[in-house]
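Summary of Year 1 activities. Much of the first year was spent building the evaluation harness for sequence design. The harness presents a backbone, in tokenized form, and records the residue chosen at every position. We chose the following record to illustrate the format because it has been used consistently in internal testing since the harness was completed.
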């Protein structure tokens, strides 16, 4: 099974994206409660601010609270001047790969980050990636 670009499942998973870019909910039961009732076919992702000074640790802690991965907007990354292959991002991707986490990337019309994604999946071959690309 190729995990890089698809999720192989008899049931199409429902994606629940929790936006943590401006508000942080510190209730440890919040994420688990979000997916309750649809545990088998729900993937809980967090939309995060990638400028966090300890990005990998931050995502690690979110995963300990029930988040299964992160959702990234390349439009946001482009505005913030963050590349997908930067050291903090690659550390986060490797941690997601090691923990079996998911990465959802919305490229919008950003071709630069789309090209960088090739390097990411080349280095993190076990990372489970879902992509949204607009032309």
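For this record, the design step produced the sequence shown next.
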């Amino acid at each position: 099974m190729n995990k890089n670009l698809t999720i192989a499942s008899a049931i199409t998973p429902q994606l629940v994206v929790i936006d943590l870019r401006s508000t942080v909910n510190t209730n440890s039961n919040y994420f688990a409660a979000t997916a309750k009732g649809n545990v088998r076919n729900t993937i809980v992702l967090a939309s995060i601010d990638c400028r966090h000074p300890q990005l990998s640790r931050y995502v690690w802690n979110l995963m300990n609270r029930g988040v299964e991965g992160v959702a990234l907007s390349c439009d946001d990354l482009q505005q913030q001047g963050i590349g997908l292959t930067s050291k903090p991002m690659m550390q986060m991707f490797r941690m997601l790969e090691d923990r079996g986490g998911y990465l959802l990337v919305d490229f919008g019309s950003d071709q630069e980050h789309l090209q960088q994604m090739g390097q990411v999946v080349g280095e993190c071959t076990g990372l489970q990636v879902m992509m949204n690309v607009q032309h």
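The CA atoms of residues 19 and 47 lie 5 Å apart. Quantitative recovery figures across the full test set are reported in Table 2.
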